[in-house]
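Running co-folding for 2-acetamido-2-deoxy-beta-D-glucopyranose.
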Amino acid sequence: MAPGLLTIFQFGICLFFMSSIAVGDEAAHGGAGGAPAACRNDFPLLKVNRWVNGAEKEPLVGLSAGFGSILPEDIKQAQRLPAMFSKPLNCCSPSSFKLSGSIALALRGECDFTTKAKIAQEGGAAALVVINTQEGLTEMGCSNDTALNISIPVITISESGGEELNKSMADGMKVELLLYSPTRPIVDYSVVFLWLMSIGSIVTASLWSEITESKQRDGSSNELSPKVP
Ligand SMILES: *[C@@H]1O[C@H](CO)[C@@H](O)[C@H](O)[C@H]1NC(C)=O
Ligand SMILES: *[C@@H]1O[C@H](CO)[C@@H](O)[C@H](O)[C@H]1NC(C)=O
Ligand SMILES: *[C@@H]1O[C@H](CO)[C@@H](O)[C@H](O)[C@H]1NC(C)=O
């Protein structure tokens, strides 16, 4: 690849990273201020710590919805709350179980994600966990509901994660969850790496122009010399 193209490519990646960081910040401020965070189309991976009868178990992985409030990055700011299945399980109509003070669990399907979130929120749930109907995590987007006003966090977990929770709860044990959004070190490293790459390519580009210019001055320029924009 020509150095010019490489620079443009890296610049693009940097812009992409910078814009995604900016979006994250904006959304985080919106959530912290209690303002309704509308659909922000950002789907960070989350950690779902869990306890069964007070004993900590392997955490599950979740994915945040494109709407709802932002989970804290710091585990110390996250709340450990009891989990409870909504009834009906799809959370498409108000739950006959009281959801207040709990993290509501609902099965995916039969109505929009935003409908489930509205119903869980109105039922007093502190958060909503949508259990996927298949393995893996799905990106839960918004319908074009401009009046969307979800102020609780909404996340999804895989089908097997839901089954594990159900198994514990079916045995009459108390399941508690704690949801948070840790900043993974790998992201920081890749930003540093990209920054180094872009610095490197600026240096390379100026070296190239030095070389080609001196070649031109020497009169030894040829068709194969790389062109720097
Ligand atoms: C947006 O909402 C309107 C009415 O609520 C509906 O008619 C339309 O199909 C929706 N558009 C999309 C892209 O969902
Ligand atoms: C959004 O919901 C909050 C309570 O959850 C309420 O105070 C606020 O007025 C609502 N905003 C809109 C635009 O409906
Ligand atoms: C939980 O497990 C029981 C027993 O296997 C099953 O009947 C029930 O449908 C499950 N509930 C959910 C929400 O997966």
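Result summary
Strands lie at 45-52, 55-64, 80-85, 103-107, 127-131, 154-157, 175-180.
The helical segments are 3-32, 113-122, 159-170, 185-218.
Job closed.
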